[in-house]
């Protein structure tokens, strides 16, 4: 157990012990469908550290301020934060605040170290094992069903995995099967998700997905080892375009950088279309940043084109600088100055293309500067074998382009 020294009044110090270890946190929706997640609280060189836990992911959070009986936690991405009060060594309560393009989402938040289990098996052992691949349908009122692929691993009653859609994946999901009931959740500062459903050997039925403060949709699935997804988020060069790009924007130091600069000539270049608000962009950036450091000497270059919530340059710079520092990005990150919500975002930045439909999207150009491939969406490490396949295909593509004269 650690002790936080809190200043109270004029020079009076109160000692509030805060328990280290695993905590269970809940985001309280008005409909009572609490979104559950775990975090680990610890100290490193007398500074508080939190790790947000989802399956095998441990998201480190160090921007933590203690003042009076209050705790302020700034998540490393997504303009997401907690403001809470320490009530006792094992009890915290406050709000989660998530900025968006228009207004902030606010959800009440409580956490306790007395109850650390994410979900309790109230219906006993799992009646079935849902490990494998599932063809999923997501339903929103008034809309056509949206396809997805579920990939799950179950050991005893614990379930981990993710859902893949044509635009990306739901990242790291964690939960349990208890009796015939499935419950999973995830929280990363942007995603705040709760899945519930009834399960059998071949079907997942009566599913509900609760997201954020008010979002909800139905879902169902059938076991299917050959499930595939349509390419509905595809982005192409417009008819008649020669495949050469010509853009120029400022990097995070205010220096103008363009695709036709000397550093990119005779190089294979990956152009990352992203935003600091985008969870899948986080996973893609972790992959690309590492790949660039290990392969730039082979003749590979990268550029990130950022589309932020607003055209507020200072707000965008804060978010992008945090993003760049967290992933130690050493390739240029360019702020396009165009909001992600701008219906003319493609025409204003990459007019040679059909509309940008999803974030992230990557454009790969060859050593002659011609577009050779466009990848929409990104499947991250939460998808297991899909992520491994993506990395292998990416390396194969880059190696083939590097081998060209």
UniProtKB/TrEMBL annotation:
It comes from the Bacteria. GO terms for molecular function: oxidoreductase activity. CDD domains: TlpA_like_family. Residues 238-403 form the Thioredoxin domain. It holds the Pfam family Redoxin. This is TlpA family protein disulfide reductase. It comes from Filimonas effusa. The lineage of its organism: Bacteria, Pseudomonadati, Bacteroidota, Chitinophagia, Chitinophagales.
